[in-house]
Amino acid sequence: MSRKVAVIGMGHVGSTVAHYIVANGFADDLVLIDSNEDKVNADALDLKDAMPNLPYHTNIVVNDYSALKDAEVIVSAVGNIKLQDQPQADRFVELPFTRDAVKDVAPKIKASGFSGKLVVISNPVDVITSLYQQLTGLPKNQVIGTGTLLDSARMKRVVADKFNVDPRSVSGYNLGEHGNSQFTAWSTVRVLDQPITKLAAERNIDLPELDKESKLGGWYVFKGKKYTSYGVATAAVRLVNVILSDARTELPVSNFREEYGVYLSYPAIVGRQGILEQSQLDLTEEELQKLQNSANFIKQKYNESK
Amino acid sequence: MSRKVAVIGMGHVGSTVAHYIVANGFADDLVLIDSNEDKVNADALDLKDAMPNLPYHTNIVVNDYSALKDAEVIVSAVGNIKLQDQPQADRFVELPFTRDAVKDVAPKIKASGFSGKLVVISNPVDVITSLYQQLTGLPKNQVIGTGTLLDSARMKRVVADKFNVDPRSVSGYNLGEHGNSQFTAWSTVRVLDQPITKLAAERNIDLPELDKESKLGGWYVFKGKKYTSYGVATAAVRLVNVILSDARTELPVSNFREEYGVYLSYPAIVGRQGILEQSQLDLTEEELQKLQNSANFIKQKYNESK
Amino acid sequence: MSRKVAVIGMGHVGSTVAHYIVANGFADDLVLIDSNEDKVNADALDLKDAMPNLPYHTNIVVNDYSALKDAEVIVSAVGNIKLQDQPQADRFVELPFTRDAVKDVAPKIKASGFSGKLVVISNPVDVITSLYQQLTGLPKNQVIGTGTLLDSARMKRVVADKFNVDPRSVSGYNLGEHGNSQFTAWSTVRVLDQPITKLAAERNIDLPELDKESKLGGWYVFKGKKYTSYGVATAAVRLVNVILSDARTELPVSNFREEYGVYLSYPAIVGRQGILEQSQLDLTEEELQKLQNSANFIKQKYNESK
Amino acid sequence: MSRKVAVIGMGHVGSTVAHYIVANGFADDLVLIDSNEDKVNADALDLKDAMPNLPYHTNIVVNDYSALKDAEVIVSAVGNIKLQDQPQADRFVELPFTRDAVKDVAPKIKASGFSGKLVVISNPVDVITSLYQQLTGLPKNQVIGTGTLLDSARMKRVVADKFNVDPRSVSGYNLGEHGNSQFTAWSTVRVLDQPITKLAAERNIDLPELDKESKLGGWYVFKGKKYTSYGVATAAVRLVNVILSDARTELPVSNFREEYGVYLSYPAIVGRQGILEQSQLDLTEEELQKLQNSANFIKQKYNESK
C-alpha cells in the first residue's frame, strides 16, 4: 500500500497543503479537486513543473471523485476567504458559501465509497466539520477539524516569544470554537517546566494580554495578506501525517464531544482510525464556563446553518 | 557556521520560496524583505505560526538590510506579476517596475557589505540579473538568474508525459532568454538512453509540438492562477541548496556568457562560489542561431532598460 | 492507504535500511524480520528509542510473517558478510548460506499472501533475485535486485571526482552481474554534456583506470569496515521510494532479461508494478560481449546453486 | 555561511551520526576524524557512494583537524563499546580508554582554533564532557553532553507504550548521570495532560517498574547488538540541529550546574551559543536526594579519572 491523500478546495490554503505535501513527498497519490477547473489544473501543472527539481515524485489526479474511494485522508479546504475581507466580518460570513459547497461536495465523497478520515479546514470549522460528518455518514471519529491546532500554535508562538524559548518547548491548548469564542486554557499551559500561571504571577506577566496577542495573530496575518495559509496548512498536514502513520499523537483538534453535543476543539489522541481517545483536562471553573459558552455558540450557529 | 538566506520580494513567488525553506529547515536564518511592510510581516507571522507544528526551527528577520551582510545567498523575487495580466503582455511589461525596484534594492544590498551569491527570479530575469550584477558590483559568477531551470523542468514534464517516464529521467535543456525567444535545444535532450531526436523520428513524435506545449505550460498556469509559484520557487530553492552545499551540480541557469556579452540561460556547474564552470554544448547550427537571436533580444532589451 | 514496507535480514545493511526509513518517515508500517531474535529486537528497540527525538512516527512490527500480506515492498537483506572476510573471497562465498536462508524465507513470504514487490540486496544478488522469484512465484517484474545501482553510483563518484562535478550530474551505467564480471558501459556515460569517451580522448583520461577505481571502491569500504552499508542501503531505499510513489524512474537494477535468460543489471523503468519497461541501450560490440560473458557467468552460478 | 559539522570517532555511533546527517542534508561540510584511518576512509567512501542516490550533497573531509577551525559543532563519539561487553561492566569500563583518547583529541581541537559548540556522546558522558571542557578551554556553556536526552527518550517510549500514545506526547525527564545512578524524575512526567503520578495511582501502575524497564532498554539493545546506535545518534543529531538553528529548545542534556559542581543531565534551553539558560525544576525531596547522589558519584569518578 502507498499513501493516498486528497485535497478538496484549491484556494490559498488548499494549494499550500498540496504544495507542502508534494515538496516533502508526504503522499504517493494526491487527488486535487476544485470547482474552478482552471485553478485546480493550474496548481496541478505548477506542482508538476516543480517535480523535476524535487527529490520525490507524487502522482497527481485532478477533479476525479472516484479516485477518493481508497484515499486514506481527504483534506477539505473549500471556502471563500474573500468574504472575510470586510469590516466586522468573522469566520461565519463564510458559512452560507461553505455550507452550500459542502452540501455539494459531501454527497460526492460519500458516493465515491470513501471510508477514510476527513480533515476539515473549511471555516467556520466546527460547524462545517459537523456538517461533513452528517452528510457523509462517516463515523464521528473519522471526521476531524483542524480547529485550535492553529490557535494553540499561535498561543505557543506568543508564549515562546515572551519566555525566549522554542515554541515547541511550550505545551498547552486553546480550546473551543476555532473563532472568537475560543480561549487559551491557561491552566494547561506550561513553559520552563512550570505552569505558566505560576510564572506569570512571579514575573508579573499579563496572561490576558498574551491571549489577546495570540488571537490577534490571525488577524494581523489576514490584514497583511488578505488570507492566512502557512500556519493552518502546516497544522493540517501535521494532522494528516499523524493519521497516515498512526502516530497516536495528542492534538487539540475539533472532535465531537458527547458532553457538549457538538464538534469543538479539545485535545484527543489521533491515529489511523482518526480520534482514538478523548483527553480529559482538569480545567478551572472559569475555563469550563468559557468552553460551555463556546459550545453553546457553535451549537446555535450549527442549528442556524441547517 | 549556520545557513543564512534572504528573500527580497514577498509576492507569490518570494513567499513560496520562504515557506518551502522554512517547511524543510533548509536555512537557519532567513531574512525577509519587502517594501510592503504589512505583507512581509504577515508572511513572517504566518510562517512563525507554522513552526510549532514543524520539525525544524528557522530564525526569521524582517526588513533589515544590515542582516544581509553575512548571508550566503540572497534570492530576489521582486516583481509585479499583475502587470502581466493583460492581453499580449509578456515578462517585459514588468521591466520598468522591476528595474526601478532593483535600482532601489541593489544599492542597499551593496551597502550591507553582502559578498555572497545573488539568485535572481525577478522578470525579465536575464535583464534583471545583469542589472543586479552591475548595481551591486558583485563578481559576475556570484549573480545568477533561475532562467530556464524552470523552462527545462517544463520541457522535462512534457517529454516525460510523452514517454511515460519520470521527468527526472529526462535530461536536456531549454536555452536562452527566460521568455519568448527561448527554445528547447533538442540536440541536448535524452530519454530512455537515446537522443530524443532519434526516438522522435522512430516514433513519429512532433518535437515542435512538444516545444509548444512546454512553452504553453507557464501560460496555462498563469491563466488559471494569475501567477506561477511552485515550479519557479522549487527551481530557485534547488539552486540555493546547490550553492549552500557546494554541490557542483550542472544546471541551466542565467549566467554571463562572454561570447554573447549577456546573461542568458546555458548550463553551468554551480557551487558555493556561484558559477564555477561554464558548460560547452555541441549545438546544431539552427540552435546556435536561435541562441544568438535570443542573446540579441536580451541585449537589446537590456540596452533599452538602462 | 498508508505505506507498508518490510525488511528481512537485520545485518549491517538491513538495519541501515530500517534506520534510514525510520529517520525519514518513508514508511508508516515497518516489518522487521531476522532469525536472530535478539538482534532484530535490539534494532527495533533502538529505533523506538530514536522516535521521541524524530519528527516522524513509524509502527514497527518484529518477526511476524503474516504482517507481510499487505506490504507494498519487501527488502531482502539476508546474508552473511563475514564469509567474505577471507583472502580471494567474492560475493559467491555467501551463496550457500544465503541460498539456504532464501529457501527458508521465500516460502514464508509466499505463505503470507504477499503480492507486492520484492527488492533484493542479498548477494550474490543476481542469483539470489532469481531464486526469490522462483520460490515465491511472484511475477518476474515484481522481483528486483539492487544490482549495479550501487556500482553505477560508485562509477559516478569516480567520474565526478575526475571532472570535479556533482556525481548526480554524471549519467550512465554499470551493467551485468553485481560482482566481478560487471563493467562500466562507457558508451552510456556522459558528463559535462559530452560522451565521456570523447572527453577522455581529449583530456587523455584513462577510462579503464577509472573503471578499476570504481570497482575497488567497494573493496576499500569492505577492507576498512568489514562490510559496506550506506551506499547499498541508500540505493535500496531509493528503489523502494520509486516503487511506492510509482515514479517511473529509469534505474540500473537487476531485472530478468529474456534475451539473456537471467537476472542481470540493465536499466529499466521502475514504478509501482515493479519493472514497467526495459530500456534498450546502443552498446558497443565489446560491451555486448562483456554483458554476454557476465550473463553466462550468472547463469552458470545459478545452475550450480540449485 | 553554510553549515559545518564535525564528528570525531567513527565507531557505531559516530558513523550513524554521520550517515544520518548526510542522508538528510543536515550539514554542508562534514569533517570526519578517527585514529583508524582505514575505518574513517571506508565510512567516508561509503557515504560518498550513497550520494548519487541522495537528494542532498555534503562535502566530506577526512582526518583534517585544521578543518575544525570554523565548524559550528563538533560531535565527539570516541569510545570503545567493546569494553562494555563483559559481565558487570558499565560505562565506566570505557573511562580509561576514552580519557586517553580525549587527552589526545582535545588539544588538537583547541589548536585548530575551534570556537564552536562541542556535543559529547562519549561515555561515561558526564565525566568526559567535563574533561573536554577543561582540556579545550571552551566556555562551559559551549560543551554539552547528550546525557539523558537518550534516557528520557527511553522513558517516553516505556510510558507511551503503557498509555498507548505517541512518545512525543509524553513530557518529562530522566536526570543525573547518564549511567546507573540516573533516575526518572516522575514528578516531571506528564501524559494525557496529567501528572503521571496521579494517573499511576488511579490506574494502579507501578512507576518503579516502568523506571526499571526504561533503564533495561539500553541493556537489551546492547545485549542484542553489542552496541547501541540509533537512539543515541538521533538524540545527538537533534541536539546539533537545535544548536545550528538556534532553536532555543528545552532539552535534558549534560550541562554544568554550579550548585552540584559537575556536569550532569538537567533540562536547559539550548541554542546557537550552547546552553542559554538552565531550567529549574520543582523536584521532590526524594528526587533531589537522588540527584545529589548522582552528582556525588559523577564527581567522585571525575576526580578518580584525572
TrEMBL record, chains A, B, C, D:
Pfam short name (any one)? Ldh_1_N
User: Is NAD there in the keyword field?
Assistant: yes
**Which InterPro entries did the record assign?**
L-lactate/malate_DH, L-lactate_DH_AS, Lactate/malate_DH_C, Lactate/malate_DH_N, Lactate_DH/Glyco_Ohase_4_C, NAD(P)-bd_dom_sf
According to the entry, every stretch annotated as the Lactate/malate dehydrogenase N-terminal domain falls at: 4-145
**This enzyme's EC code(s):** 1.1.1.27
Q: Please name the catalytic residues of this protein.
A: H178 (proton acceptor)
Q: Which domain of life is it from?
A: Bacteria
Q: To which protein family does this belong?
A: Belongs to the LDH/MDH superfamily. LDH family.
Q: From the Swiss-Prot or TrEMBL record, give the protein name.
A: Putative L-lactate dehydrogenase
Q: What is the lineage of its organism?
A: Bacteria, Bacillati, Bacillota, Bacilli, Lactobacillales
